[in-house]
Amino acid sequence: MEKKRILTGDRPTGKLHIGHYFGSLKKRVELQESGEYNPYILIADVQALTDNFNNPEKVRKNVREVAMDYLSVGIDPNKTTIYIQSMIPEVAELTVFYSNLVTIARLERNPTVKTEIAQKREIFGESVTYGFLGYPVSQAADITAFEGKFVPVGEDQLPLIEQCREIVRKFNSIYGDVLVEPEAVLSSGKRIKGLDGNEKMGKSLGNAIYLSDSEEEISKKVMSAVTDPNRIKKDDLGNPDICMVAYYHHLFSSKEEIKTVCEECKAGTRGCVACKKQLAKNMIEELKPIREKRAYYEAHPEEVDKILMEGTKKAREVAKQTMKKVKQAMKLNYFE
Ligand code: TRP
Ligand code: SF4
């Protein structure tokens, strides 16, 4: 039996950080390695433009950065098809067809879109663009063009998958049973807090550790992480539960080390500087293979381009087949 396609992707608006790593990338590599699926990853440059239309250079640059991040964490182009969204015109065509099947009110009610619009006041002001409001329609095209059955996503993306399912049902009820209805698979990954303790790690917040950060950058950032504010002198009793260094020790250090960190912190026998140095060492060690692989691709941009070109070519063939079926169903196959 043919393996089910799974579809994931990211907007190329910045390099990927350890929040992405723990939140989704690890899971994608796991799914890839299980051998049970046929995974596709899209670099969603068209979607990135919906809120960065005034910054095409940023999107262009980050397409390759994100591709290198994927490759360096172990996304294997022989097992996973990596492609660039804007180079699949069928996805744009589908978006136009689907736009008849969604009301403006429904898009305005989409919780993910609503939250994002609220966060992006500086771009949109009081009035959002047609393109941004409609990006869930384009995302439905991303998924259905590849007959994506499973979509591993974080919780914030669930309303987008629900919206896609509605579009699929509507399409199939009008034009016939053509589209595959996708299912969201919640990636078990966790959301990683920022160095400053913010719930979210993000570029705009300046609190992220990137997969591409050098050893020096990692050390510097770890040194700046927020610790228990009540600890001023080394022998003050500390509370690791409110310290970001302890939080990251839980992600990067061994069980014994974590135990020691917490015990010594609470007893006031641990210095924060030493504690941070130990964390930085472990983090540097854990991210080393990723950093090395990334350095390889940075030195071989032609290989990255080749992978993207080949993945995109393969993806295009799949999208073309879906488009043929869609046009037939919609009676747009005039000269067949
Ligand atoms: N919306 C996703 C994000 O912001 C990116 C994305 C675009 C995507 N198309 C997709 C994710 C299709 C899963 C499936 O990161
Ligand atoms: Fe945080 Fe470590 Fe300092 Fe405790 S000793 S407050 S865990 S940095």
Outline the fold blueprint.
Blueprint: E1 4-10, H1 18-34, E2 37-43, H2 45-50, H3 56-73, E3 81-84, H4 89-98, H5 104-109, H6 111-119, H7 121-124, H8 130-133, H9 135-145, E4 150-153, H10 158-175, E5 183-186, H11 215-223, H12 244-252, H13 255-267, H14 272-299, H15 301-329
Parallel strand pairs: 1-2, 2-3, 4-5
Helix pairs in contact: 3-14, 4-9, 4-15, 9-10, 11-14, 12-14
Bound molecules: tryptophan (TRP) and iron/sulfur cluster.
Structure description:
The chain has 336 residues and is mostly helical. It is built from 15 helices and five strands. Helix 10 links the parallel strand 4 and strand 5. Helix 3 packs across helix 14 and helix 4 packs parallel to helix 15. It is elongated, with a radius of gyration of 22 Å. Bound molecules: tryptophan and iron/sulfur cluster.
